[in-house]
Amino acid sequence: MKPIALTPNQPAQFYRGGSVVGSFRGAAAADDHRPEDWVGSTTARNGATGGEGLTTLPDGRLLRDAVLEDPEGWLGGAHAAALGADPALLVKLLDAGERLPVHVHPTRSFAQRHLGCRYGKTEAWVVLAAEGPDALVHLGFTRDIEAGELDRWMAARDTRAILANLHAVSVNTGDTLLVPAGLPHAIGAGIFCLELQEPSDFSLMLEWEGFEFDPREARLGLDAKVARECVHRQALDSERLAWLRSHGARTRSPANLVERLFPEDADPFFRAERIRPGGGRVDLAPGFAILVVLEGQGRLATSGAGALELGTGSATVIPYGAGETTLSGPLVAVRCRPPNVEAALRGGLGAPVRGNTGEGSDNE
Questions:
Q1: How far apart are CA 32 and CA 239, in angstroms?
Q2: Closest Cα to residue 265, out of 204, 340, 203, 187?
Q3: Three-state DSSP class for 121?
Q4: Residue closest to 297 by CA, chosen among 274, 318, 313
Q5: Considering Cα of 193, then 198, then 199, then 205, what sign does the dihedral take?
Q6: Is residue 95 within 8 Å of residue 19, measured between CB atoms?
Q7: What is the gyration radius of the CA atoms in the chain, in angstroms?
Q8: So where are the chain's domains?
């Protein structure tokens, strides 16, 4: 098995963006509502009928189907035995051409109870660019919010009140943030980021003024009171907020070439490292990964077979069966990885089920 270069995969969305993704990836978006590139995706959009969101490999197969055909080759025996024929990871490039509406994602337990899926949607962001006065993210309530108060804001579509009670966080290129499921959040206009997520497409909107949603669609078809259970209404204190965006949570190899990006809270959901070979090389153990080059040029070689020349904006899926991976050259890349298996099981990831993530259950 060998690494495979991926072309852009930009399903239509309800919000504007896409030109920055196009410039980064070297391919213009079809229109101005293609703000997300689903990189190496085995996850379909929620409610999709034509497989929107799924990655197609150069040989014409869906990546999802290739993994199903050879889960141990793609994922490794330990991962496949514990979590099934499923990378348990969704990676996106997101170009916010406008502020996204405030929303939350379900936890695993909520998704298992109400949405027929073992995955919630904890996510994390690596900020690749932040431009303009609105380059802010809104994350977590600044005070405890009563259920009735939130209900009134949503019924009145009171965007001002919702935003006024969320932390407004200024971000810069290189910043990282971990966003646990249930935490209200919104990405501001002018932010381009790399996202790692649990592999689902579930979002519950707290405000949708100016966007094309009906209230029931915004609640994933759930009763309003049931949907509200998903929202973490307690205040996010300053210490916890700092931890979620803490640079101190990162670790580096002795050679300072590999930098862990997220605190250990993320391990049940996904892992990521920023890699800078510089003038040398970085050797990485076998494992399924999505590699995105942020800047520079270099080379990816594996002990199994094959090598690829890399450049800014390139995206590559690396199977476990490709063996040890070596990165070399003056580049900066992020290696996105599935969850730690033991941490995922401790974190409530249930057994695989048959179905389609786009229809509200797993993508196996």
A1: 38
A2: 340
A3: coil
A4: 313
A5: negative
A6: yes
A7: 20
A8: 10-69+89-247
End-to-end Cα spacing for the chain:
21
Q: Which residue has the higher pLDDT, 117 or 354?
A: 117
Q: How far is CA 316 from the centre of its chain?
A: 16
What does DSSP assign to residue 48?
-
Structure token digits, residue 127: 């900020």
| Residue-level pLDDT at 215 | 72
Residue 228: C-alpha distances to residues 166, 233, 271 (Å)? 17, 9, 29
One-letter amino acid at 260 equals: R
Fold of 10-69+89-247: Jelly Rolls (2.60.120)
- Separation of alpha carbons 55 and 71, rounded Å: 16
Nearest C-alpha neighbor of 272 from the set 328, 190, 193: 193
For residue 235, what are its two tokens?
A: 């205040």
- Does the predicted TM-score (pTM) go above 0.90? yes
CA-closest candidate to residue 87, choices 187, 165, 199, 8: 199
Distance CA 312, CA 63 (A): 23
